Amino acid sequence: MSLSSPWRADFPALAALEAEGQTYLDSAATAQKPQAVLDALLGYYAKGAANVHRAQHLPGERATRAFEDTRTKLAHWLNAASPHEIVFTRGATEALNLLAYGLEEQFQPDDEIVISALEHHANLLPWQQLALRRGLKLRVLPLDPSGLIDLQAAQQLIGPRTRLLAVSQLSNVLGGWQPLNELLALANAQGALTVVDGAQGVVHGRHDLQATGCDFYVLSSHKLYGPDGVGVLYGRATALQQLKPWQFGGEMVMQADYASAKFRPAPLGFEAGTPAIAGVIGLGATLDYLSGQDATAIARHEASLHAELLAGLAARDGVRLLGEPQVALASFVIEGVHSADLAHLLTEQGIAVRAGHHCAMPLLKSLGLPGAIRVSLGLYNDGSDLERFFSALDQALGLLR
Ligand SMILES: Cc1ncc(COP(=O)(O)O)c(C=O)c1O
């Protein structure tokens, strides 16, 4: 009997996509949203939209309260010491760019920034460009054969010149949990700032950021079953004090005249202009929804689906799995078959998977691949999705081989 998902019915998009003949297996790119989140979005607009932090009227106060409630829920979700450590951005990408601009003055020429070989472009390009602007060295931690950051190499590479370490918690291509504690300890021993890209990691389990001890952590709401256009920068209070504002405008300023301005501290000092109000309120509803579910049951369900996915791939000739994924995703190539051709045939059969370089071109290049297919699962996927995927895969391989 195929695995069913008790959460599937909470996500109306799944039935809508199924009615269109689509099987959604691309949740690591963006996840579908539960009805509770759609209700929160509609509820905000239907009751009366209003700007936050500036109006005293009822809709303004209501919007501000709901917006700030999400900040408090996030602080709780991530175990931040205070809601003041939560800054809203437009995504993980914007949060990383904020850091790369806001920390610019912390660096001297020849300081080193250390990243890893598996970073998403969002956690590579902002640091690369900062290094080019300031004459810094960008150093890249290599991977071990299982696709994790090589700790022995990290011991050599992270040294007295290291001013900042920026690494992913979980690779969006290889799906492995990185040895974060060890890496952060190496960076802390050198007094370096630490940035963790939690865009994928935050989706798979709760993380206690005070225990983790990183200076900064970023995530995107849309991957965590929340609305798009919203991201989060967590910063430890003392780390946030080292950040300069990078965007200037409304509500981030305490005092302004024609010659100068005095800026607010975090978080509002980093939230210039009107934020994604509905999205932030929707993210609050997402956290409420997820808090109401049995996290262990979700993890068990995803692990069972993942095991089925890996077994199905392993049973087919010539499949090369990339890395050793520990969460419900699998990136792969098939000997003698071009990934782009395979992706095309899967798409024609209504299978929504990701194909290409996965915004990690240097990683794919180091694996000697122009691209790969990635299947990624959410809590709403079930055994029938995998059956449709494997049937489409076999049909495509029949045509391509
Ligand atoms: C590991 C990782 N970091 C960062 C990002 C960027 O997220 P966003 O495009 O939502 O800013 C992604 C998105 O795929 C990701 O997988």
TrEMBL record:
One GO term of the biological process aspect: cysteine metabolic process
GO molecular function: cysteine desulfurase activity; pyridoxal phosphate binding
Family to which the UniProt record says this protein belongs: Belongs to the class-V pyridoxal-phosphate-dependent aminotransferase family. Csd subfamily.
Pfam families with a match to the protein in the record: Aminotran_5
InterPro entries referenced in this protein's UniProt entry, alphabetically: Aminotrans_V_dom (IPR000192), Aminotrans_V_PyrdxlP_BS (IPR020578), Cys_dSase_SufS (IPR010970), Cysteine_dSase (IPR016454), PyrdxlP-dep_Trfase (IPR015424), PyrdxlP-dep_Trfase_major (IPR015421), PyrdxlP-dep_Trfase_small (IPR015422)
Summary of the function given for this chain in its UniProt record: Catalyzes the removal of elemental sulfur and selenium atoms from L-cysteine, L-cystine, L-selenocysteine, and L-selenocystine to produce L-alanine.
Cofactor requirement: pyridoxal 5'-phosphate
Aminotransferase class V domain span: 23-389
Name this polypeptide is given: Probable cysteine desulfurase
Keywords from the UniProt entry: Pyridoxal phosphate, Transferase
Its EC number(s): 2.8.1.7
Reaction(s) catalysed (UniProt annotation): (sulfur carrier)-H + L-cysteine = (sulfur carrier)-SH + L-alanine
Organism of derivation: Pseudomonas cavernicola
